[in-house]
Model the fold of this input.
Amino acid sequence: MTSASDAKTILVTGASGHIGRAVCRVLRAANRALLPIDRDPEGTPDVLVCDLRSKDDISKLFRAERIHTMIHLAGVLRSASYTDPLTGADVNLSGSCELMRQAAAARVKRVIFASSLSVYGSLPSVRALTENDPVAPDEPYGASKRVVELIGEALAKKGTFEFIALRIARVVGPGVKKTSSPWRSQIFDARPRLDSVSIPFSPEARLSLIHVEDVARVLFTLAEAPKMNSFVYNTPAEIWEVRKLKELIEERKGIRVQLEPGGSHGGPTCDGSRLVREFGFQLHELDDYLSV
Done:
């Protein structure tokens, strides 16, 4: 944990997760004061233990530091929310509400919430969806994300704090520790000519993909921006037909990729042009990451 008496401390929840670790790297590289927390730090240096189901754990955070910005990444993932929906609701909904309640009392300036494309539902979209398209969550995970979006926006309209929901596309990148979709990391970590990777989608499925390092850069951009014009942003993302993605991975990484004919359609795709337009953000191409 780094801080200074005149620094604007940034609280990062879920700091030991895939996105959290990348965000903390970006913040530390920029010499920002940082308060990283996670329920299970898993040996991650300087990460404090905090369970969002505990009001006492949360209150200790705001007593320990004068927090200026909160980047809220912690949550029970979609697959785990299916398995245990009550625990998912305890963390994703109740825990998020308690964080915002105590952030309001501590006069936090800005809250950045890691939302999800799940708010658009699970059906495939005929085109990339913008923030102006209707939301239609059809399972507990996406519904909890949408409820937090609505509560955060209502608080922001009252002047409680600034609130931004970032609807994150499907994240890929190396080093995932816990996931029900291991292919997202395996396409970077697998050994050429030795390993194969199974991508559980049909060849014609279309996926909105963003590398974890780009997600971290987006979150840093939102944390640093002098002002916000919107309450919600989609992440920029590349839209890949899975058969084309397979060809790219096999060419760049030298590993065999297996698909599932008749498998999942991949859900909706997103248009992140609002964020690109307002902040001049440039997405790095997946081809470049795979070529390293």
Summary: Residues 85-105 form the longest helix (21 residues). Residues 1-6 have pLDDT under 50 and may be disordered.
